[in-house]
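Checked the freezer inventory, then went back to the computational side. Two predictions to log before the end of the day. The first one is the construct we discussed on Monday; recording sequence and tokens without edits.
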Amino acid sequence: MIPFELAEPTSLEEAIALLDPDDPEVRPIAGGTALMLMMKAGVFRPRRLVSLRKLKGAMTDIEVTSSGDLRVGAMASLANLEHSPHVAHGAPVIGRMMKRLSNVRVRNVATVGGALAHGDPHMDLPPVAIALGAKVRVVGRDGDRELAVEDILTGYYETALKPNELITSLTIPAQGMHRAAYLKVTSGSADDWPALGVAAAIDCEGDTIKAARIVISAATSKAARLVAAEKLLTGATISDRLFNDAGEAAATEAEIIGDLRGSAAYKRELLRVYVGRAVLAANKSTQ
């Protein structure tokens, strides 16, 4: 790697001031698990990295708000998320998901904000966050704004974040009667990058699905909701026929891309099966 400047601000305001919107060689770095790999491969050669590791307080806290929402600081590690009692109570699907997210060494370092800001469609957290209806707070020189996680991701490794903006927190609304599951298919070990990820969050009354949010990842250029499948599931009674129809709707709707983990045709067949499996897993989950 070529030499670069490492800035270590101790406040959010200082960190934002150190970012240069006109210089693509200046980047923030949180856990660095993805960015360091890009640097070692020579894909990215920074002039300055703005480390966020010294930003504490609200940037690392995990708490439940007065309205019952789950608020997670962007600098909380994935391991913090995995072991938080607040997360276990308010969004247990996240704890279950973390067991197959890379390995404990990565989870100890990688951060929530980094996982969302990187824009990698193979990441496990974004599809689950979208299924749960999560939003992020973004702060920059022009002020702050709130965005749904699904609106942050705009394309393959592309986001709606401006060069001088930082994610400061993730908010997951109180789930009420919603139950959720995340399933992923890997071509290697169980904790490998997925060939397909499907997240489902449903609200059921008996065997009738009152509401559904279905999200695909890894097989597409970005994590995205499968609206056609959601519409078909909503108001319907759980059955094998429903799962087959929802899988077919998803496979028709999604713009599948192939990669080293599987061809587009292979991933489309996986999607046909895993939409129903994800909904069934959500229905059987504790929340």
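The second is the one RB wanted added to the comparison set:
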Amino acid sequence: MNPKALLSALDPRVRQRLLNLARILVTVGLLALVIWQIKPDELLARVRTIRLSLYALALLLSCAGILVRAYRWLILLRAVGARVSFRRAVYLYFVGAFFNTFLPTGFGGDVVRVLEIGEGATSQQAAGTVLIDRLTGFIMLFVLALVALPFAINLIPPVLVWVIAALAGGVVLGSVLLFEGRLLRLLTARFPRALSLAGDAWIGKTYAVITACGARAVTGALFWSLIFNVIQITANVLTAEALGVRVSPWLFFLFVPVATIALLLPSISGFGVREGIYILLFGQVGVNETQAVALSLGAYSIDFAAGVLGGVIYLGAGVLRLRSKQGAEARPNPATEK
């Protein structure tokens, strides 16, 4: 029996434990490699001299970014007939930030948003719109990278230019195929019912939500993704300035998308993976390993702060018994019902 078949035959709980163990091993191994490369004393000295005013502004921008993303998600939810309030969307986004920060995966918060959506939307509506919500963020992140390339083409090696351009093109093309729908439905038509995007099983109904959002809602989500990503990159630039690491702001438009894709690799909150990517990328422009790790930890810290705030909100909602599923019943959506 090959390893893939053996993994499939395992009990789901055992399989999940093995995956979590793999994430832990990857994280510990990469962190050990990073620590071996840096100078801890220099890193601590840089952190101690951080300019708190700039760092506080980066934190505020990070929280503002969550409000923008919550509104982006709300546009998609309403496009498929879900009845969820902006307040509820903001709450779920902050809670999602908490679980993304403290679970051994960068997408645990998305699962929580689906599970906690409430009576105002079906699970298919929640899952489909969460996926589009994520994708529009990725698309605009890489569109910004393509826009920034001409301004930074002389700052990075040619091979890195081609890698970033290829990644951006792949993300945009894949997203177009996903939203178009017909080709993917055709390709999966002969799959088992549970896996076919053209079927009436859960995955098929969820995909129907994705393609039912409509051009207007997707365009609106892309616009707010543009706003969010500019906010996110500005927060990263401010964090670098606060830490005294001065590099061209254009580099963040190129490197943040690559680091975001890298976080799809198995790890705990991206530790080890993110630091390694920052060392690799910023090392191409003369930033030493210690400075690159400081940039990485600074970027993580603003997300961590938002996650902690989400945890406080989640705890407060539990104590005050406000964590019940809110909202009215979802309106029937012809695109997702047979």
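For RB: The chain has one domain: 42-319. Confidence is low (pLDDT under 50) at residues 325-338. Let me know if you want it refolded.
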